[in-house]
UniProtKB/TrEMBL annotation:
<dbReference type="InterPro" id="IPR010982">
    <property type="entry name" value="Lambda_DNA-bd_dom_sf"/>
</dbReference>
<feature type="domain" description="HTH cro/C1-type">
    <location>
        <begin position="60"/>
        <end position="110"/>
    </location>
</feature>
<protein>
    <submittedName>
        <fullName>Helix-turn-helix transcriptional regulator</fullName>
    </submittedName>
</protein>
<dbReference type="InterPro" id="IPR001387">
    <property type="entry name" value="Cro/C1-type_HTH"/>
</dbReference>
<dbReference type="Pfam" id="PF01381">
    <property type="entry name" value="HTH_3"/>
</dbReference>
Amino acid sequence: MYSNSNINIFSETVTYTLPKYFFLTKNFNPMDLNDFIEEKRKLGENVIKLRERMKSSEYKNRSISQQELSDKGGYFSKKTLGEIERGDGNPTLETILALAYVLEVHPKELFDF
């Protein structure tokens, strides 16, 4: 039911007991699993899809480029947008809101994947 464990703290051994549920719930902590790699990749793919729906003002018959989109609002850089689209970025809430604003969508749509 309980597990006894030993830990060394400042050269002294301390014995502590962990309840059984600790071991059951620890495996389900999403922060320990994969740093949300798959979710970041899906978010990036969705941002690309939403960006490609927008028409370029600089080039006829083309979708808006990363540079155009980043210049549109001035809220984030092309580098930041590229990181998000590749699934490498970890955007802040402010960046997510700004991205939704320049893509002309509700922030919820960014996560519809």
